[in-house]
Amino acid sequence: MSDDWYYVHQIAALEGFRLIVLANRIGCADQFLLELHDRLAEGLACVTARVRSIIVLERQLASEPDEEGLVAFQLQGEEECFARFTITLLDDLEIDFDTYEYRVNGEWHYALSADCDGIEISYPSTVALADAELGGLGPIIRDISRETGIAISAARVVYD
């Protein structure tokens, strides 16, 4: 990144938001909201760990020679993973259109079915949770995404 303090700022912001999520969790009486808070806090801890590893690699690259370019290659990979990091709070949907399969929360399913009437391809979709379902977590999620650039998915899979 162009700013020398970018990743330090990211750690501070992520840890601050993690504290806000944990503090907001105290007021939850609903088990569903407690789980969402826990998943968000865990996701923020994971992305913070990735940022810390980037800082370690940057420091290693600056202080030691890297003749083979392995540290630079690893740093580039970590930065790419960080750039596309997504925290998934509820359901995760991945669709493979080439094989007519989809994965919901890690389990693969076929979207292609055939019977005497012909072939049907049916993929599920995701619907974002409403602010009423997220409770006080909605504004926190928007603030995290706006300030840190981390994508947060709070959606459920629906089957048509």
Approximately how much helix is present in the residues?
40-55%
Strand content: 15-25%
Q: Determine the number of helices (DSSP H or I, runs of at least 4 residues).
A: 5
Number of domains: 1
Order of helices and strands: HHHEEEEEEEHHEE
Number of strands: 9
Structure description:
- This protein is an alpha+beta fold.
- It has helices at residues 6-25, 31-63, 70-83, 131-134, 137-148; strands at residues 86-88, 93-96, 101-104, 107-110, 112-115, 118-121, 125-128, 151-153, 155-158.
- Strands 2-3-4 form a three-stranded antiparallel beta sheet, with no helix packed on it. It has a two-stranded parallel ribbon with strand order 1-8. The chain has a two-stranded antiparallel sheet with strand order 5-6.
- Helix 1 runs antiparallel to helix 2 (31-63) and helix 2 (31-63) packs antiparallel against helix 3.
- The radius of gyration is 20 Å and the shape is flat.
- The termini are far apart.
Secondary-structure map:
Blueprint: H1 6-25, H2 31-63, H3 70-83, E1 86-88, E2 93-96, E3 101-104, E4 107-110, E5 112-115, E6 118-121, E7 125-128, H4 131-134, H5 137-148, E8 151-153, E9 155-158
Parallel strand pairs: 1-8
Antiparallel strand pairs: 2-3, 3-4, 5-6, 7-9
Helix pairs in contact: 1-2, 1-5, 2-3
